[in-house]
Amino acid sequence: MTSQIDTLLDETRRFPPPEQFAAQANATEATYQAAAKDREAFWATEAAQLDWIEPWHTVLEWNLPHAKWFVGGKLNVSSNCLDRHVSGGRADKAAIIWEGEPGDTRTLSYAELSQEVNRCANALRGLGVGKGDRVAIYLPMIPEAAIAMLACARIGAVHSVVFGGFSAESLRDRINDAEAVAVITADGGNRRGQVVPLKKFADKALEDTPSVRHVLVVSRIGEAADTVMQPGRDHWWHEIVDAASTEATPEPMDAEDLLFILYTSGTTGKPKGIVHTTGGYLTQVTTTSKYVFDLKDDDVFWCSADIGWVTGHSYVVYGPLANGATVVMYEGSPDWPDRDRFWALCAKHGVTVFYTAPTAIRTFMKWGPEFPDRHDLSQLRLLGTVGEPINPEAWMWYHQHIGHGRCPIVDTWWQTETGGIMITPLPGVTTTKPGSATVPFPGISAELVDTDGTPIESGGGYLTITDPWPGMLRTIYRDDDRYRETYWSRFPGRYFAGDGAKLDDDGYWWILGRVDDVLNVSGHRIGTMEVESALVDHPAVAEAAVVGKTHDIKGQAVAAFVTLKGDRDGSEDLVKELKQHVTEKIGAIARPEDIIFTADLPKTRSGKIMRRLLRDIAEGRALGDTTTLADPNVVNMLIEKHEAAEG
Ligand code: 7RM
Fold it and tell me: What share of the chain in percent tops pLDDT 90?
């Protein structure tokens, strides 16, 4: 069987970095060689470019599965993201260019951002928040979100950002697990012309959060939000932060002191509090921002992720700001007031490097090129993607219609747990192949293993990491047993990422998705991405999600959920045509047993397709946890459709 991936190895689908890029690139072949020769020395050289209050004495202490990086060193993350740029010639340079959904904008220079952070740090100290205290941040994408994170870092408080789209219950559980002493929220945020009343949700959560002593509230909406403040507990940001001093001494933090906790959903209902510390995390996000996004002084970097996700932590806030770059932050969604909003923003703010998720790219593809074509995107020079395997068709569309064939694409594989980018091309160095995350970043050791944990050179298997890396999670907050069990028990001595992957003959990585997303049809391992990719290759198809369903003979059979382009309707003929199309592209082995047309696919709020739910639907089972769904209605509609299709 030739898989979709094999056919992509065709020379015509390889994209060497453009000539002029090699000249601009921050990294070279020598970067890989240096790191391969001495991994710890590579990371130490990178770490040494940060400002340290006290130097470390030991680069790495490794007691599997517990790592300590830059032991004995002291530093402050906010000083590294702000003070050294203010004193180093970037005081007037834009740090954050922000745009609100209604079109209001605000630009904060490094000097201004630094002052705001210090004010917020002083206000928090005034409320009795100090080193080691946990602070929950529940905000829309407004500058105060980055300010609050950096202010926590300045005083040594541990932030736990909770995505503004999460419910009161999710917020409550996260506050209680971390025993947060303070919550930073807003009266509301703007989303598709509607107000999201965050403070009202927070109030509901706060009915049952005994650890919280203070709530700091940003007025984003004003009178219309009708906010009720509880005297003694609730404080307006514009009253206490604006009145505070613009000078605040940074807390000297141990390299291994906690910087933040970020909750991520696991296989059980209880979210895992992923713990990140100070020195190693900052080193990895700073280094990867520099080499992967090739950040230079005149770059305007837009990572479209919300700060509620790790991508927003690492590549909206800490990584780019540590490099003294200019970042763009946007409050709203890509289709408001029109489907060209992202491209209008890129043109208006002169975005040079743009980083987004495959789910967004496939949506743009579905809407068609007329929306980006309305705007001058000639300033873009580099594109990135993260969050899911990107199907080659979406990659090609991104390359052609956003990058106009000129911009390299960095497909970056990493996780909340890894803190920063792990497998990725380096622009100017790596030849890319559409759909492949290419090779491990310098200083990262990834290995593919089979079911027994034996390393394999090529073919399909499980993605593991063999050596500790600076940005790795240190544990699960107050649940070290779960940490060992989840990441270090499946393959002893190795970190197991939970992803299936393939290695091709060039040693390039093709991430197949979570192991649950890899099918076994008559003994053949087929990544859901491969079949999805074949389906999306058909001109009528916008997006596809493929899952396995139990089959008496084959073990598993392919079930496909498909959304069509434009206003097309699915017909019996189209079902036949699509089955035939997959057979032609991949082989009869991947031919879908069922094809179900749907207007939407169930997705998490960070845009990942929830194949687990689709599996339940395909098997006709009762549905598991649906609380993380962005739009619960999608699922009910799908159940009806599936029952109708089964007749
Ligand atoms: C950054 C982020 C992690 C999971 C991971 C993978 C999937 C992420 C890629 C990818 C294929 C990629 N953190 N994933 N990046 N799959 N290619 N470039 O997304 O913790 O929310 O998710 O996302 O399955 O394990 S996350």
Answer: 76
Atom of ligand 1 nearest to the CA of 309: 21
CB of 514 sitting under 6 A from ligand 1: yes
**3-class DSSP state of 195:** strand
How much distance in Å is there from the Cα of 497 to the middle of ligand 1?
10
CA 383 to chain CA centroid, nearest Å: 15
* Inter-residue contact 367 to 360 (CB < 8 Å): no
| C-alpha closest to that of 387 among 410, 407, 413 | 413
Classify 435 in phi/psi space as left (phi over 0), alpha (psi -120 to 50) or beta. Answer: left
Two tokens, residue 406: 């000129």
Q: Give dist(CA 304, CA 577) in Å, integer.
A: 36
Tokens describing residue 72: 């004995």
- Contact 211/158 with Cβ under 8 angstroms? no
- The predicted pLDDT at position 518 comes to 75
- What global pTM score does this model have? 0.88
Over 90: is that where the pLDDT of 338 sits?
yes
Both structure tokens of 539? 């001109």
Question: What pLDDT, on a 0 to 100 scale, did the predictor assign at position 627?
Answer: 63
Count the helix, strand and coil residues of the chain and give each as a percent rounded to the nearest 5: 35, 25, 40
Kindly tell me if the per-residue pLDDT of 458 is higher than 50: yes
- What's the count of helices (H) and strands (E) in the chain, helices before strands? 23, 29
CA 513 – ligand 1 centroid, Å = 8
Can you name the CATH fold of 522-646?
A: GMP Synthetase; Chain A, domain 3 (3.30.300)
Place of tokens 């699509």: 578
Q: Mark out the alpha helices in 206-292 (DSSP H runs).
A: 237-240, 279-292
Arithmetic mean of pLDDT over the chain: 92
